[in-house]
Amino acid sequence: MLRRKMILIALSLVLAAGLSFLQYQYFKKMTESDKKIEVVAAASDIKAGEKIDSKLGIKVIPQSAYVKDMYLVSEKPAGYAKVDIPAGSYILKSLVSQEKVPVLEEGMRRVTINVNLTSSLSGKIRPGDVVDVGWVPKDEGKEAAKVIAEKVQIYDVVNKSGEDIKKADKNNQYDKESLIPAAVTLIVTPEQAVAVKEYEAKGSLFLIGY
């Protein structure tokens, strides 16, 4: 009987030690997961297309709440907001572009025109660029070439396959044809959109860079 009691006591001590160890490991992990880190957040409202650089703040969060799309303070993010980011919201990498972001403001419209390498400034255009739109008539004897829209922003640039030029540059870097613009979408007023398409039917359009 005594031997059995000693064995039970020993087993109890082993189980108690095991439980204590497991509790220690659990609370250790909880403590580590609650370690605080600093991430980047919007200090004030940031509008789509606006530079984020001067509107950044810091939020302290548990490490367990961190996701890879967040910016750590040490990463020092910069660029343009793809969408409106309310004050206090986390600045996520998926919401930031390193290039200018074209924004379709209230009352504005999008219109697409055909272009080629020559009429698109040798293809050196990107969304966000500001250009003038020039026009050359089919019959130069009746009308003179002129500028039909000034300081309009480029919304999108695609190749003949309808692929975004920037994406084609990454995915088809050895296919030069994929880098030649075939169509450009512009941000214009409704009146400008109608005029642009009317002039396109009567001649050739080309972009004038700044």
TrEMBL record:
InterPro entries: Pilus_assmbl_Flp-typ_CpaB, RcpC_dom, SAF. It comes from the Bacteria. SMART domains: SAF. Residues 37-97 form the SAF domain. NCBIfam families: pilus_cpaB (TIGR03177). This is Flp pilus assembly protein CpaB.
